[in-house]
Amino acid sequence: MPDRLPGELLALLTARCEQFLHYAELHLGTHQHAVRVLDELLYELATSWDLALTQPSVETYIWAVFKEILDDHLEARGGSSCFVDTAAFARVRQDARDTFELMEQRIGLFRAIAALPERQFDAVVLTYVVGCTPRHTAWMMGIATPTVYSLHRDARRRLSHVLGMNADEIAAIGPEDQ
């Protein structure tokens, strides 16, 4: 391997290292095996960089070398990819993380809603939790529909301040998208 790696090679691999690693890990099942593939890719490209530069597309050449190395590793393991199990498990794990994060945010939001002044609380709960239209909320509370909108606006401002979030962030975790 050369003493110094070409700057173009380092830039390309630095920009795409995580994607190559993730792709290999999905197929090989472990981070350790994926790192070995990346090490081999780096070695192969460092020793054949001049050839890579003569190709019509350096990126296509890099991908072909990467796939060849990955296929060699898969063949050494018996030829089967772990993609289905690995990708499915990774997606389920990420979905679970996202769900728990959203639940945590919503618990904080509902606590903050519970602390709103009574009329704001009633307007928010009737509209976003119970599912009433603003017009129906107004009828239920015995107030004008524009007052419901005003109560919502004031509640969003208060929630925004209490939770340290902007109104768009509050709407994204709000009860209305359940």
Topology:
Blueprint: H1 7-28, H2 31-47, H3 49-53, H4 58-76, H5 83-114, H6 118-130, H7 134-141, H8 145-163, H9 167-173
Helix pairs in contact: 1-2, 1-4, 1-5, 2-4, 5-8, 6-7, 6-8, 7-8
Describe this entry's structure for a reader:
It is built from nine helices and no strands. Helix content is 80%, strand content 0%. Helix 1 (7-28) packs parallel to helix 4 (58-76), helix 2 (31-47) packs across helix 4 and helix 7 (134-141) crosses helix 8. By secondary structure, it is an all-alpha fold.
What key phrases describe this protein's structure?
178 residues; mainly alpha; 9 helices; 80% helix; elongated
Instruction: Please bin the fraction of helical residues.
Output: over 70%
- Overall mean confidence score, pLDDT: 80
Strand content: under 5%
* Structural class designation: mainly alpha
Flag low-confidence runs. Answer: none
Shape: elongated
List the total number of helices: 9
Q: In brief, what are we looking at here?
A:
This protein has 178 residues and is mainly alpha-helical.
